[in-house]
Structure formats: C-alpha cells, structure tokens
Amino acid sequence: QDVVSEESEEESNGVNLMEFSDEILLHILSYVPCTDLVLNVRKTCRKLATLCLDKSLTHTVLLQKDYKVDKDKVKQLMRDIGKEIYQLNMAGCYWLPSSTIDHVTRCKNLVKLNLSGCHVTSLRLSKMLSTLQHLRSLAIDVNPGFDASQLSSECKATLSRVLELKQTLYTPSYGVVPCCTSLEKLLLYFEILDRSREGFMLSGQLMVGESNVPHYQNLRIFYARLAPGYVNQEVVRLYLAVLSDRTPENLHAFLISAPGSFAETGATKNLLDSMARNVRLDALQLPKAWINGSGLLQHLKFNNPFYFSFSRCTLSGGHLIQRVINGGKDLKSLTSLNLSGCVHCLAPESLFRKAEDDIDSSILESLVVSCCNLRHLNLSAAHHHSSESIGNHLCQLLSRLKHLLSLALPVCSITDVAASVEKPPTTPNLVPQTFGRKVRIGIQTYPRNLGDQANQKVESSVFWALMESLRFLETLEIIGSSFSSAMPRNEPAIRNSLPPCVRAQSVGDSEVAAISQLTYLQSLTLAQLPSILTGSGLVSIGLQCQHLRTLSLANLGMMGKVVYMSALMDMLKHCKCLRDLRLEQPYFCAGAQFFQALSHCSSLQRLCIVSRSGTLQSDAVMSFMANCLEVIMCHMFMGESLTVCRNLQQSIVRSFQAERPALNVVIFPLLHEDLTEVIRDVPMRHLDEITLFKSRVAEEPPNLWW
User: For site-directed labelling of 178, which of 228, 402, 582, 657 has its Cα 20 to 30 A away?
Assistant: First the structure.
C-alpha cells in the first residue's frame, strides 16, 4: 500500500501535457506530420481534437517526405481539412497512383501546390487546375504524352494567374509555360534522355501544336538546370529564344546550370548583351563556355547580389576580384558562392599557371573580407594549395567566415604545409592507390575513447582550428580534387579513377576526427582520402555529431581493402538520427556484421552502396530490412551476378512493399551494360539526392523553391 501511495503521489506531482498552454502545445504539434495530427492525434481527446485543426497546423501541409502516407490517407486528409489547406507540397510522392491527385480538388483555397515527381496526366491536370482559382505557385512534371491541347479554358484561366512555375521536363515540350502569362519566377529542370527505351535518337524540336510563345514580360527569376545530353541543350535554347528578343525589365536572377560543353550562340550572345544594358542582377550562373574568354562580367551590373556560381569556369582570381567582387564594394549581401571546379579562381592569372600551383592568399583574403556574410561556399574540384607563409593558409582565412552553414573543400586544401613537406608524398606500402595487388598492413586498431583520439590530433593543425571556429556548420564536404564517382549520369560505370593529389596524402584519421567538433553537423561527405588507415575519426563523429542525418563516404584509404570497416560499424551504432547513408568503396563486403551495426540507425530511410567487386549477403540484407522499419530505399550496385541481384531485389519487394508503399529497391551489377537503363527508372528524388554522387553545397540559390 505504501508503494502504491508513493506512485500515485509522484503521478499527481508530475507534469500533465494537457496542462501546457495552447501556444506551447501548438509548437509541439508543429513537429508532428500533418497526416498523424489529423488522422490519429486529434482522436485522443477533445483538447487535441481542437488544436490539431488549428489554422497554424493546417495552413501548410507537407507530404514530400512522408513515406508512410498512402492514397487512402491522402483521401481522408483532403476530406477532413481540404478547405483549410493553402499550401500543399507533395513533391516526390512517386508511389501514389495518379488517381490520388483527383482529391486535391477539395483544396479550393490552394495558393501553392507542388506536384513534382507525381504522376499527373494532361487531363487530370486540367480537371484539377480548373477548380483552383486562387493558385499562384505550381510545380509539375511534363512526361511523354503530355498534350497542352487537352487543357480546358478554366484550367488555362487558372494558369494565367500563376506567378511561380517549376517545371521538370522528361520530353521536349513547352509544357504549361505558354499558358502562364503572368509569370514572375520560372524554374526549368531538363531531364530529357537522348535515346528512347527502344534505342531511337530523340529530337529537341518541339511537337506540332506546342510552339506557342512563352510570356516573359513580368519575369524576375529565370532558372534552368540541364541533365547531360544534347537534347536538353536544344530544348532550353527554344525557351531562351524569346528572352533574346526582349529581356524583361524586372529580371534580377538569371541562372543556367549546364554540365559539360554548352556552346554560346548568336541568340544567347544577344540575350547577354541585352542583359548587360538593361538589367541589374542579384543572382547569376552561366555555362562555362559563355564566360570563359569573354568580357561579359565586366559589363554586367549587379544590385544586391546574394548568389554567384562560376562552377567549372576558367575565371582567374584577378578577374574575380576586379569584375565580380569589385574591390569589396557592395558584396556584404552575398550569401552563397559556388566556385566548384574553378581551378584558377584563387590565382591572379591563369595563362601560365598550373592547376597544382600555390594559391595567392591575398585573393582569398579579399574574398573573405568582401563577402563576410557568406553562408554557403563551394571550393571543391580544384587544387587549392596554400603556401608556407605563416597565417595565410586557406583554412586560417576561411575561419573568419563565422556565418558559414555549408562548406565544400578539396582534400588537398586542408593539409598543413609543414606536415605535407615532412611526410613522404606517397606511402605505397600502406596506401596503394590502384586496384593492383593487395598489401597486408597488419591488424587495424584505433583509439576507443575520445581522450585517446584527442591525444592523437596535431594541436597546431589548421584544419582542426577551422573546425573549431565554424561550430555552427551544418553541411561539410571534403572531396578529392580528382575524385570521380563510379556511377556517372547516363554513362557506363567508370572502371578506373585518377590518382589523388600528392598533398592529399597528408590528410588522414586525425583530420577526420577534427570534424567531430561540429556539434550541429547534419550532412557530411568524405571522398578520396587516401591516407585513412583505421577510420578512427569516424567513431568520434558518430559520438559527437548527434544531429547527423546524411553521410556519404567514398574511396577512403587503400583501394584494395576497406580498412575502415571496423570503425564504420562502431560509428553507425551511435548515429540515431541518420536518415541517408551512401557508401562507395571497391571490395566492400555488405555482410552480416555490417548490417547488424547499421540496424542501430533506427531513423535510417535510404541506403545506397556502390562497390566495384563488392559482395553482399542476401540473408543479412533481408534481416536488416525486417529490423529497420523506416527504410524505403535500398540501392546496391555491387560485383554480384545478375541472378543474385534480381533474386534479392524481388525478395525485398515481395516481403516489404505492402507495408511500405514508397519502397524503392534497385540491386544490380555495377559493371553491367544495362546499368543506365536501370538508372532511368529510379525516382528523381532518390537519384538526385543520394544515388548519384555530386557536390551539393551552393548548387542552387538558397530558398529557390519553397
């Protein structure tokens, strides 16, 4: 009786959640997915039934990564709160049948709607948009078979009032652009393949009846991102042709992201000349061929720029300072800068300079001083070697950028100059860089506690000091300057990679351990670090970086053996918030021990493993999928036979598809000739965010789309 009375007394003295104020409860409920609020939580008691339908919770509904939602839940959700929804984001809900879109018609007051990645036909789009008279922002996909002539007059009336349009094209088409006569923001993603599934070459010419002229007179933001392929280039030129005739007076952001060579034509030259005369820009990104060797930047005028991207351009540091930074004038507004692959951007001139020569620290210092409010900076895919001058190391200068939230650096840029001189440039007996004969280096050991790890670090390390000064960094990428993924887009898998930079040989476990100082780190990418011997720094990251959600590791240590496997498994046991894991490493063994460790990542949703000559254990994979209930994506490109891969893929789909509607499984031999055909069926959300390797820092302007 005494025990019972004590327990009841504790309960009476405890805090009852329902005693909190409505404001506090609403803040707590804002972290719960809307489907759970409406379909589950509000059924628990009268107070929550009222709060869950508060306008602050139903005004904006985000379903874009609610992988548990199915067509029945969407139907019920729209029926219960459809009239209260003003913003609906269903981007990437590829698993929902096209009939699900019909229920969006209940949301009569919709102002913003994102259906990117959803299956929508011309007729369904017409029916839906005919009822959404208040719509001002729309995102859709244009797939083969789209026919603008099927759009009703009511649908076109709605489109005429749309101010913001994001359109992903999988077929040559203007889509709904000609109907949107009031556009102020236009985002175009070109994902058109050069060949059809039957192997026929596609043409970039638009189909008959789709040559209506787009209306750009009110345009403020124009953005186009092209996937590799000549058809994408042909189609985007048709979109640009109208712009070249008359440049919108209010245009303040002009961005074109194009891989490879995208030649300048007479029409594009006229467009750029017109922009130089008539507009003042706040954001700029152009294909490298449009900037290289031209005096364009000298003539363009800028207002309060917030984003610049000169990715893969041969722009020299001298031109960067003179023509863009303008001696440090009016660049406090710049928050995002992408200099990825801009190999000469930190040198005074590029004419007689080798890519591996030391940088000019005065140029970087001018950049840091002028752009002191930078939040996103990408310096990857280049050799940025610091000289021996004291206090002028790249890491020391970057440490002044206290507002940085995301940073991408080449591996060779973070090495201490003194260490790289003292340490032999190559250690062939420890870290062979080819797929040649394996060398036995003994049993790998690493410190088991942070105290030992701290004792191993070099106190004077410039990279350690940089990590210490950027405590609020959320995204970090350290990528080898010559690294290339084994899975490029629309091409066969790469079989051989270029050797790492000589200075990268000085970057090893202690530098990785320095990253553990980033308490708020959410996304980490490490690629081509040849001197990783044990991976001990990974354990420190797992222990200290408790907010880590995305982890991508590629080609760490010796190429003939996964030397960091033991440390990786220890790390994964501490990554409770990890949602996305991508591993790219030759000879990776995805066995029972690995998947047992990975099962500790209770929040894991997506897994991608790319491994030349890699192996897997089917039973271990099935057990992992059964234990990790949140996993909805499993991509493995290994060295196993096609039969083994197909059998495992079918087993996973058969066992878990019913419980996980968003489940996407691709298990396929990495070097198989049909790999590109398999890749084209992967949902764009997964392909773009995790399966394909790329640097994502400052890839796009911040807050480009809601």
Answer: 228
